[in-house]
Amino acid sequence: MATSTSSLTQRPAWRALGAHYQKIKDVHLRQLFADDPKRGERLVVEDVGLYFDYSKNRVNEETIRLLVALAEECGLRARIEAMFGGEKINVTEKRAVLHVALRAPREQSILVDGENVVPKVHEVLDRMADFANRVRSGGWKGHTGKRIRNVINIGIGGSDLGPVMAYEALRHYSQRDLTFRFVSNVDGTDFAEATHDLKAEETLFIVSSKTFTTQETMTNALTARQWALKQLGNEKAVAKHFAAVSTNGQEVAKFGIDMANMFGFWDWVGGRYSMDSAIGLSTMLAIGPDNFRAMLAGFHAMDEHFRAAPFNKNLPALLGLLGVWYNNFFGSQTVAVLPYDQYLKRFPAYLQQLTMESNGKSVTLEGAHVDYQTGAIFWGEPGTNGQHSFYQLIHQGTKLIPCDFIGFCKTLNPLGEHHDLLMSSLLAQSEALAFGKTAAEVKAEGTPDWLVPHRVFEGNRPSNTILIERLTPEVLGKLVALYEHAVFTQGVIWNVDSFDQWGVELGKVLARRITPELQPASESPLSHDSSTNTLIRRYRKLKGNTK
Ligand code: G6Q
After folding, report:
1. Is the CB of 4 under 6 A from ligand 1?
2. Dist. CA 228–CA 224, nearest whole Å
3. pLDDT score of 264 more than 50
4. Using CA positions, which residue lies closest to atom 2 of ligand 1?
């Protein structure tokens, strides 16, 4: 394979950042704040209802100037326009990338191959709303005439993580007499546990699959069909208890789902960018069409901001560029996302797919091997839980882990002092990470000399703080779009295709090859490596062993 001509690392702004890094790498955040007492008021951006404080980063104005220059040299502005303009920027799959069209207002026009796709988007949204209203009101009856009480989304990857995350995030706004569950894993345990206490006559399955061929989803969907028919005893029940979300009408029809219950989307919507398409049907069923549209309006507000704001005031661009700074110059391997809100408990898992599937690439758009680092590892847990487990390593370990703190000024569940305690933890953590505690301070507390080194906190550990008034559907849309476009920004800098996922496709093919070989009676000769062959034989033997 050709090696990259290093166009990124040869860029003037990249080289200037390298030189600048040498100057700033040992400067402590204590110093940066002491030199500029108003730093915490200046290194912030407030727009579209989000307050983004990036002052606790190891940057100064020169760093930001150079990062912005890098974005410009890499043509970020033109690439944003190419995405919004429907150009086929997913080059390896020759597809447009238009999740932004999913949240475009009715009157907007976005062309793909000369066709305005916005009317199609709204037609599906209107059908979803009609369906959601009928299920939510009890107007939609199951096969035995009972109303639906349980909704189970069957999907995996992009057809699961967005729906689960959004349901958990917006649970406060959900219709409480409906139960929502999500089955993704091909492990039968997932299906069994999701259904063990439910009655089929009150259950609606939404089979969510862009391709409608994904092994896990189709296996779970067939199991669901059998489970429902066993209880309801009539093929006709499928029309009342199954809906589908897909781009593949033919396969949906083959499965036997009534086409009136199919909600479509298009090849220009990537799986991990699809929670605001019909893949969000379970979300709409939970929170209702008006709240769903409010979420879309939030996405759209961030889209417009990303498109229009200068890069030094542009929330996704800054978030993405700061990520490049740590990833490529400080050598950080990971980013911790730490939402101080229990409703956002699945947000880090959602972001893992969004970021790592998008930018976990090692060749450029032209197919040359990169000679620089690309996508970071994203991980995290909600605060304050994480404080009692892995924060230790962030504070005192040997690794530099930039953190994103996300917090809300108003809680959705006011209960005594809880919210102030939660938020004071967020603020205390980012403060401690940045400023640490010196040996002199530790000694002054009366700590014996031998214990001092253990109780010193170096500090200088960077973080962003995103502070928002309250978690609403609109805010969730803004937050997701913020990270979507930060990922896009990084993909442009690294010159990778953020919208393909050949690694996922590989897994889909490999699993199919081994399945027939696992049967105990299988005679097929094994032609894997000696480790895989031996593991397969052992599995076959013990699986057949009923003792
Ligand atoms: C997302 C990926 C992947 C995909 C799943 C499910 O960007 O392509 O996670 O969403 O593999 O695919 P289907 O929706 O086609 O079942």
Report:
1. no
2. 6
3. yes
4. 271
Q: Is ligand 1 within 6 A of the CB of residue 209?
A: yes
Alpha helices in 265-362 (DSSP H): 281-287, 289-308, 315-324, 347-352, 358-359
Residue nearest to atom 16 of ligand 1 (CA): 209
Query: How distant, in Å, are the alpha carbons of 11, 61, 68, 370 from that of 65?
Result: 15, 6, 5, 25
Length of the chain measured in residues: 547
Q: Which atom of ligand 1 is nearest to the CA of 157?
A: 9
> CA torsion angle for 287, 289, 295, 296 (degrees, to 10)?
150
Reduced to 3 states (helix: H, G, I; strand: E, B; else coil), residue 114 is: coil
Strand runs labelled E in 228-279: 242-246, 262-264
Q: Tell me: pLDDT of 170 over 50.
A: yes
At residue 398, does pLDDT exceed 70?
Answer: yes
C-alpha 397/C-alpha 68 separation (Å) is 31
Residue nearest to atom 10 of ligand 1 (CA): 158
Q: What is the pTM of this model?
A: 0.97
| CA distances (Å), origin 67, targets 35, 79, 211 | 22, 16, 39
Q: Active-site residue numbers?
A: 357, 388, 508
Q: Measuring CA to CA, how many Å separate 450 from each of 395, 436, 446, 456, 547?
A: 20, 19, 12, 12, 58
**Is 358's C-beta closer than 6 angstroms to any atom of ligand 1?**
no
Question: Cα-atom radius of gyration of the chain, to the nearest Å?
Answer: 25
Alpha-carbon distance of 171 to 208, in angstroms, equals 20
φ and ψ of 176, to 5 deg: -75, -15
Q: What is the mean pLDDT of the chain?
A: 96
**Banded pLDDT at 315 (limits 50, 70, 90):** very high
Choose one of 504, 508, 509 to mutate for the ligand 1 pocket test, by most ligand atoms within 8 angstroms of C-beta.
Answer: 504
Q: Within 13 A of 255's CA, how many CA atoms are on the CB side? A: 35
Task: List, in sequence order, every residue forming a beta bridge with 242; answer none if it has no partner.
Answer: 205
Q: Quick one: average pLDDT of 415-437?
A: 98
Q: Check pLDDT > 70 for residue 258.
A: yes
Task: Using the mean position of ligand 1's atoms as its centre, give its distance from the Cα of residue 298 in Å.
Answer: 24
